[in-house]
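Sequence in, structure out. Go.
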Amino acid sequence: MLNKTKEVTMAITQEKSFEVDNRTGVNHEGPYANTPARRLTASSIIGDSVENTHGENLGKIDNLMINVNTGTIEYAVLEFGAFLGIGGKLFAIPFSELHLDTERELFILNREKVYLKDCPGFDRAHWPATNDHSYFDDVNTYWGTPHVYP
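Output:
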């Protein structure tokens, strides 16, 4: 009976820790508590670093673009080439191109740095209209991903 009570107490404690982890983004249960990661808050993704498979820094995730009809993240907006947040360019990267590295707490983009230099982008003051399909069609063509329409 004592073991059963201990198991229930541990389960309740663990549940409360997960609730705190989800609210704060801080992992209180060790480095592998959320492995495999299935759900992340938008605020825990925004600001994350992105590297390529060679370990080169490609920038940071500036924002996320969500398809409100499907509820899925279609694009991560990557800030590339900025120094202290100045002078960079923004790119809509199909979210399916990014892979989470849970140990290093960053995203991996399996592309060379030069690939981003020719990618359709925009600057912070001139975001593409969210319902103008031409920019996103260009992005999807460049990345070879399916064109997504409502």
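Check: The chain has two domains: 1-35, 42-143. The chain is about 30% helix and 25% strand.
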